[in-house]
Amino acid sequence: MRWHLSILAALLVVPASAADKPDSGALAKRIDSHVAAKLAAAGVKPAPAADDATFLRRAYLLLIGRIPMPSEVYAFLEDADPKKREKVLDRLLASPGYATHFATVWRGWLLPEAMTRYEIAAAVPGFEAWLREKLVANAGYDKIVTELLTAPVTPARNPQAGDVVLNDMYGGTGKSPLAFYHAKEGKPENLAAATARVFLGVQLECAQCHDHPFAKWSRDQFWGLAGFFAGIESTQPGQEFAPLREVSDRRELAVPNTDRVVQATFLDGREPDWKPRTSSRVTLAGWVTARDNPFFARATVNRVWGYVFGRGIVDPVDDFTDENRPSHPELLGELARAFADGGFDLKVLLRAILSSETFGRESALAGPRQADPRLFARFPVQGLTPDQLYDSLTLVASAGQEAPGGGFLQNPGSAKRQFLDKFALVGSKAEAPTSILQALTLMNGELMAAATDPDKSRPVAVVVGLTGLTDTDRVEILYLTALARKPRPAELDRALKHARGDTTNPKKRYGDLLWALLNSAEFRTNH
Amino acid sequence: MSLSRIPRPALPGPSRRDALRAFSAGAAAASVAPWFAPLARAAARDPARKRSCILLWMSGGPSTIDLFDLKPRHENGGPFKPIATAAPGVMIGEHLPKVAAHAKHLAVVRSMATREGDHARATFHLRTGNLPQGGIDFPCLGSLLAKELHDPAAALPPFVSIAPQRVQAQGAFGPGFLGPRYAPLLVADGQQVAAVAQLADLDRVLKVQDLTPPGPGTPAETDARLALMTDLEAEFLAARPGLAAEGHRSAYAAAVRLMKADAGKAFDLSAEPVATRDKYGKTLFGQGCLLARRLVERGVPFVEVTLASAAGAPAGWDTHGNNFDQVKALAGVLDRGWAALMDDLTDRGLLDTTTIVWMGEFGRTPKINPQKGRDHFAAAWSTVIGGGGIAGGRVVGKTSPDGTTVEDRPVSVPDLLATVCKALGIDHEKQNLSNVNRPIRIVDKTAKPLTEVLA
Questions:
Q1: In chain A, which residues have their Cβ closer than 8 Å to the Cβ of B169?
Q2: Domain annotation covers residue B363
Q3: Which residues of B touch A412 (CB under 8 A)?
Q4: Using CB atoms within 10 A of its CB, is residue A150 exposed (0-12), middle (13-18) or buried (19+)?
Q5: How many cross-chain Cβ pairs, A to B, lie less than 8 Å apart?
Q6: Chain B residues with CB inside 8 Å of A319's CB?
Q7: Is residue B394 part of a domain?
Q8: Which of A116, A188, A323, A442 could share a disulfide with B170, CB 3.0–4.6 Å?
Q9: Which of B174, B180, B237 sits opposite A433 (nearest CB)?
């Protein structure tokens, strides 16, 4: 870690009390100053500030997972308070939608298996309920991770009954992080790989079988981390999803196909401080979530940054290596430090990033040199996640929505489940192309029909049926409904031309307009 | 010899491109059969024609000891008898008589030696060539081959998956890190046999979902709507070059091509003569094979057809109980569809450029369990490869008299998949950049292609 002198100086003058009580506004300024320094060094002028409507749509999509409704856009545009952006961030972060949405987001990172294995999908409601409870209470991220890493894996009830584990995960008691252990098949190597990837930002999978070819990790280090999970074992070996149990003082593992046995060891070489009759996972969690852990806070702020911008300061967000350097090392260091010093408060972090000028820039490219994504000279255009897209479309269609909590995932017939499968993102959000089937679904599928069919669409029925509206009003409302902004003059002209092309069937014509807007790249992306 | 055989046209025929153009122009006449033969003949003769692959995927783990590696002199053999085939010395199971007639174009690999006995893991292994590994989104075989063989200008997508059952191992059916461009176009996704007992049902499900706009609307109205969309998003797109926005536009262009072009008519099975449809069998798998032929004729490089259940075998190939009745029922469906496909590809001159792969995720235990069933077995089982690039009429490897061990020429999953690549003229060691930012070979570097079956 190379510290820039100016940053060191800046840190030295921050009084301790300010560090204890995190201030999103001050942190936002630090973000902008680091980003500006790099832009200046590169000689690139950043994009201008985006307008209020653009800001609002971004914030809604990122914080509660859906586009704003027309009434919400109008209210925001008409609010004369100069602090209205901060106000709306506060309101969204305090809303139930935040906890519900981020429970889904974190579940996606912690349990990616739920999208490909129905047995794991069945455990999602309990897992999301647990996460949601933590997010509603705004528990420190260190506390959440500690709870996950130290969750008792031995089921409390009926350990002998056949299928007890799934029942235990989401039946009686409900909220539980236990699904994490079952998704990783209770295997120390899988648990270690997931822990390294999500919490520490490092990919150790390759080191499972050989010394990592592109990074410094050795095979013994991988198995050393896995050693903290060595005590976990199935009560019925060979039987998937059987109850697990833990031998708490087992802390070593044999490296497969060798005669070596490695002890549980931390990745930074520190010596574990073992406590008797305590799961070694407690020791691991203490190291992972320590304020001075060299990986944890950096990996987390980078992941959250990547969630917002579609690209991490280190990118991919879980690939911290010597070869894959951060675009803004000082910024990463300062964000991580503020995050750790402020009690790992996810809301403070999100509020800081979303209230920065860097976040508030236009996405339109004003010059070729702004295109370098590592500069954050403009807001990157990102494909909507399947959840954002589905929830936004159902909002426009006034279609039935799945209840929050992820229960629908275990139902292959669920319209949302099928949609999520079809729209599953591969790779980074900034590079997510659309498939042919996705385009067909968006153009011709049931959900789009519900949203835009002249005889079914509620927005179309409203704009055509309400008396006293002009054609211009109608176009404007449909623009707000789909794109959360007012049309520009040229767009208004084009839309009016279509709407007035057949005055005998206005519903059809306005249905066409809504269809065109919902199928546009502008709707399909966060920009 | 089939009644539906279409007379070959007099030479010289039109070039493939001409044929395709004529085919699309003659939309109104396109349901008339004579178009197909010139199309196929032209396709076969086109020197630039790329190769295709059809995977017949036996979901659930087929009992290969009852189909391709019979043990009639051992108690593990069960009641089925081997029969001679058109290839001297190659014997296969009595319930595949029609396939037996094509044995000269098929190589039976009797020495698959794999390790995964769990449906999900084994399915992932056979279909991607890899074991699940946290964090790496491995593409399935179809996506890998589609990437190598696709024609960027084609109206049809490069990978069509017919009647897939993805529930157990969804990750084994996708494009992984290759991205949505190589995602399969799913047809009759997750369809259960019981729901499609009638030909009309089959016609309905074996179509691309959402290919036609909902509700009434003339083509002119659809065009007007598309023009409105194009105009209204033009400014947004122009100001935001980049993959997310451009990928959106290119996918829409391809989807619209598929909606408008006669390419979409590939999915109209009612255009086939009744006798042809009958020959393939009025089953999801049989009609799926017919659709596969129609797609390969139109240049689709990878088509897979899943056989996961049949009347009389509701659980499909996962025959833990009552193995023999169920395998017989499934083999009947398989034999008819597969043999009709071989017939038609041969007639059309397309078998030389179309590689056929038959496989499931594992075989079944040689020992018959008390429920007259066979359980999962990965240590010694069979697969079949044939058609283009394969020297057929032979057998690779050998299992022990009781069927439990491979005695000669053990074949791994990478070995098999690399052989398929070679048959298709693809360098299996070529690398793709993965989602974990490191290059990954099409097939793992441990692979040793089965050179003895390569033509």
A1: 116-117
A2: yes
A3: 167, 190
A4: middle
A5: 200
A6: 436-437
A7: yes
A8: A116
A9: B180
Q: What is the pLDDT along chain A (527 residues), one digit of tens a residue?
A: 344 444 444 444 444 444 445 689 999 999 999 999 999 999 999 999 999 999 999 999 999 999 999 999 999 999 999 999 999 999 999 999 999 999 999 999 999 888 877 778 888 998 999 999 999 999 999 999 999 999 988 765 544 443 344 444 444 457 889 899 989 989 999 999 999 999 999 988 767 766 655 567 888 899 999 999 999 988 887 777 778 888 888 899 998 888 899 999 999 888 898 988 888 999 999 999 999 999 999 999 999 999 999 999 998 898 898 878 999 999 999 999 999 999 999 999 999 999 999 999 999 998 888 888 899 999 999 989 999 999 999 999 987 778 888 888 888 788 898 888 888 765 555 556 677 888 999 999 999 999 999 999 999 999 999 999 999 999 999 999 999 999 999 999 999 999 999 889 999 999 999 999 999 999 999 99
Q: Which residues contact A171 (CB under 8 A, 6 or more apart)?
A: none
Q: Do B225 and A371 touch (CB under 8 A)?
A: no
| DSSP H/E element including A197 | none
Mark yes or no for CB contact B251/A434 under 8 Å: yes
Burial class (CB in 10 A: 0-12, 13-18, 19+), A313: buried
- Name the residue with tokens 């396939």: B99
Which residues, other chains included, contact B227 with Cβ-Cβ below 8 Å and sequence gap of 6+? none
Give the pair of three-digit tokens for residue B255: 């989807």
Residues of A in contact with B233 (CB under 8 A): 516, 520-522
Instruction: Name the domain count of chain B.
Output: 1
- Sequence-distant (6+) residues with CB within 8 A of A63 are A89, A92, A93, A97, A98, A101, A350, A354
CA dist B108 and B67 (Å) reads 11
Q: Which residue has the tokens 């769990």?
A: B118
CATH code: domain of residue B141: 3.40.720.10
Residue A35 exposure: Cα atoms within 13 Å on the Cβ side: 27
3-state secondary structure of A253: strand
What residues contact residue B445 under an 8 Å CB cut-off, 6+ apart?
B429
User: How far apart are the CA of B393 and the nearest CA of chain A, in angstroms?
Assistant: 39
Residues on chain A touching B243 (C-beta within 8 angstroms): 430-433
CA B183 to CA B357: how far, in whole Å?
19
% helix, strand, coil for chain A, step of 5: 55, 5, 40
* ipTM of the modeled complex: 0.88
Question: Which tokens go with A161?
Answer: 């009954």
Interface probe with A: pick from B225, B435, B445, most Cβ of A within 10 Å: B225
Residue B33 lies in a domain: no
The domain of B314 spans 51-207+268-453
Do the beta carbons of residue B455 and residue B420 sit within 8 Å? no
Partner residue opposite B247 with nearest CB, options A205, A240, A432 = A432
Burial of A130 (0-12, 13-18, 19+ CB in 10 A): buried
Nearest CA in chain B to A213: B438
Residue B56 in any domain: the answer is yes
Q: Give the containing element (helix H, strand E) for B383.
A: strand B381-387
d(CA B99, CA B95): 9
CB A376 within 8 A of CB A51: no
